[in-house]
What does this fold into?
Amino acid sequence: MSDARPTGELTLWKRMRQGGRTDRSPLGMWFWDIDRVVLLLTLLLVAVGLIAVGSASPAAATRYSDEHHHIPPFFYLQWQVLWVCVSLPVLLIVSMLPVIAARRMALIGTMICFALLIAVPFLGVEKNGSTRWLNFGVSLLQPSEFLKPFFVVTVAWLLSMKAKDEALPVTVITGAMTAFVGLLLMLQPDFGQTIVFVAVWFALLMIAGTSPKVIGGLLAMAPVGLVAA
It folds into this structure.
């Protein structure tokens, strides 16, 4: 029995049977190439963050309100939702970038965030005994938060270069970067963020296949770092 469908309809039918994998548009390629598990976990973390901020917002608003300044109960939740609305389109756009473009963006972003971190002790806003934010008029910005994704991609990129040339001292280079970030964070001071960056560096070293002896030596030096902090 012959199929009497027009050629255009047959093409569409084939694409539907193949699950749309022949769609080479940016959105189609993104849909089939994206790591859905990572995407799901990311959206889950966003949802958990919204719930956490929503539950804490009334208490925080009450705490920071006084007779001169009244903060609405869900003020902090509204700001969190606003940032989520901004960040999700950014997530979509960045996840569509070619690998080379993503690496370059990460490197540029890392350098910009380094410059902002250097400026924090001199131009930052002090709150609760810590100077971690820069005032841009519309909102306060914490450079260390924006540095995290750039730092992960940049360090992963540098560590991957060892596969091409074993002689490259990528462990030393990335370790120096991490120590520099830790120094700038401890000037604020922000011990929690310092631990996060060091832990991310260790995780990336292990993923990159760094020698267990090197990992062990670095772990043995951890108490020295804690005392210095």
Notes: The first helix runs from residue 7 to 17.
